[in-house]
Structures are given as structure tokens and as C-alpha cells.
């Protein structure tokens, strides 16, 4: 299966390098490259890619707003028009500021990597996000875990009470970063059943990605971070 990718970055040299890296992978096809957020939204609607590799700091609308439009995530009380498609978004940026990480994940990004990432990690990240799995740079992961390392706050996750016991177990596993295979092995269910449970968890909690689900599990106190 070929993964269709749109690359969005306002720096031509960086964009060219990303296209070369991704294009060298036999299972990845770069279907478009664009230089601003609005063009990324249009390319996602036109080409229907599996993944949009998104920079944050771009002219016009930034990568966070572009991600929100592509994924269809809407802030409360806001209408931004129809989603551009079913593409997953992998944010790739120079900046790992908390507000950018929070903004990107809240907008529905499936992953957040820094531009210092090596080629192998980048291509693996694209593959993981295309599978619907979450990807976070190690630096970002540590900070997110520290942020939710306090007391459990179940009421901070709307819809948590709607989950069945099994779905709650799945959410806790997502919070620990388990893949579908890992969840299946731990819960002793098939991968097909696992995928169904994951989809139901995301739908009931109004989440767009497994990364958002992992953060929700931390917020709900379902995961106790280690040292």
C-alpha cells in the first residue's frame, strides 16, 4: 500500500529536502508540495492524501489553523467550513513551544516531530501516522507526560462516562502508547476488535487522533507516568 503525502513548508530548500527523503521510500508517494497553510488545505481537498506533513510557521493561515481545517476539528462555537478530507496531519517544526504543541494536538494533528529528526525517524513517523497511530518527538513526550503527572481529573474529559469498561481499558492502553497489536495482546482480543474499540473511543470522546486519546487518558488519571 502506497502512502500519499502532501508536504507543506514555506522554505523551499527544506521542502525540497523533505520531498527527496520521503520520495526515496518505496511505500511513500509525495503527491503535492505547497508553501503555505491555505495551499495545504486546498491540496488536501484536491489530492486526498493519507498524510499531510505540516510546518507551523507559514504565511497566511499557520499550520495549526490549516491542521484544524484539514481534520475538521472545530473550536467551540466556531464554524470553519467542511473538513478538507480524511488525511492525518504530522506536524514537523523547528519549534517545540508548549503552546504550539498544545495547539497542534488540539487541532487534530496525529503527531508532532522536530525538524532535527533523522530521515529514518521521519519516514517511520509518516507511516505510523498513516496507520492512525500517534507520534511525538521524545522531547515533546516528556513534557506532555510531566504536564499530566498530577492528580486524576476524570471530569476534565467530557464523554468519559460513556465508555464501557473495555473501552476504558483501551483508552488507558492508548495513554501508554500501545499499538493495536500491543492492545490486542494485552486485552486478548483480535486486532479487528481492537480497531473497533479504538474508533468507538475516539467517537465517544470527540477526538480526532490516537495522540489526543493518549493525552485524554493522562488527563483522566488512567495512566500513572513513571519516573
Automatic annotation (TrEMBL):
Residue positions where 4-aspartylphosphate is found in the record: 55
InterPro entries according to UniProt: CheY-like_superfamily, NreC/VraR/RcsB-like_REC, Sig_transdc_resp-reg_C-effctor, Sig_transdc_resp-reg_receiver, Tscrpt_reg_LuxR_C, WalR-like
Pfam families noted in UniProt: GerE, Response_reg
SMART domains per the UniProt record, alphabetical: HTH_LUXR, REC
Residues spanning the membrane: none
Annotated ranges, domain HTH luxR-type: 156-221
GO terms of molecular function: DNA binding
Entry keywords, A to Z: DNA-binding, Phosphoprotein, Transcription, Transcription regulation
Domain Response regulatory: 4-130
GO biological process: phosphorelay signal transduction system; regulation of DNA-templated transcription
Entry-linked CDD domains: LuxR_C_like, REC_NarL-like
PANTHER family in alphabetical order: TRANSCRIPTIONAL REGULATORY PROTEIN NARL-RELATED, TWO-COMPONENT RESPONSE REGULATOR
Protein name according to UniProt: DNA-binding NarL/FixJ family response regulator
Species in which this protein is naturally found: Pseudonocardia alni
